Amino acid sequence: MNRVSEHSPRKTDGALLIPTTMGEVPESHPRYASLMSRQRLVDAMKEGLLADSALIAHGRGEAFDYLIGERTCPGAIAAIDEVAARLLIAEHPVISVNGNTVALACDELLQISDKLRCPIEVNIYYRTPERMEALLGHIRNRATALGLNHVEILGDKPDGQIPGLDGPRSKCCKDGILGADMVLVPLEDGDRCEALVAMGKQVFVIDLNPLSRTAKTATICIVDEVQRTASALLSRLKEPKDSDPQFDASTSRRAVLEVMLGALERDQSDA
């Protein structure tokens, strides 16, 4: 697991308490996983991994996660199964990560990269030398801790550009995003997703907002929280299923949207 806090857990009356900036949180807390994700982001911010807007973006995603009960819905499970099946037959897959993804699911994505024998490429909008150094250093440190130093980490020396895209995120690596046939991009921006699809790539995104431009544009959108998805995807890669020729990405996405709408309707009827 990624480091949660610089302080050590302690036990009180048999309950394990995890120290956070919000106080000590018992593992029995009903929103324990969500609170730990928040703490990982706070720690990542202190380490210089995140842009200033990162916590806002995460909070927006949490609002959608509430509506699905902070669990992986059947529609998302179907999408995870299909993404796993396609990644295993990809010729040149790559995993593209930003700061929030590294903070929340670095270990899982390193293991997925190892399973697929593909590189991880750091690609961020708010790109500074200091932030790139912090992100690359964090990923490499986690790779060492997991015994995965052989995983190729790209992004520090981009030598390509995504056509039709302006700004820092257009910079990429020829051996990574530019040369990939399939790209797994957790927490993607809509404009880059559109540009990658326009290049003829299959783009698999993880986005809790089923109505976002990214969710609608991607080849497949997994509407779920990034760490839950990464953990589930890693499990699927170990016990893969064949790609389903009848899989429909729009149906999968809309199935999760229906769960959200159902939650709102139930709340309204209970009022």
Molecular structure report:
By secondary structure, the protein is an alpha/beta fold. The chain has two domains: 10-67, no CATH class; 74-261, Rossmann fold, CATH 3.40.50. The chain has ten helices and eleven strands. It has helices spanning 32-46, 54-67, 74-88, 99-116, 129-145, 174-178, 190-198, 213-217, 226-238, 249-270, and strands spanning 10-12, 15-20, 23-26, 93-97, 120-122, 153-154, 160-161, 171-172, 182-186, 202-206, 220-222. The protein has a six-stranded parallel beta sheet, sandwiched between helices. A three-stranded antiparallel beta sheet has the order 1-2-3, covered by helices on one side. Strands 7-8 form a two-stranded antiparallel sheet. Helix 3 packs across helix 9 and helix 4 packs across helix 5 (129-145). The longest helix has 22 residues, at 249-270. The relative contact order is 0.15. Residues 1-7 and 12-18 have low confidence and may be disordered.
Task: Briefly summarize what is shown.
With 271 residues, the chain is of the alpha/beta class.
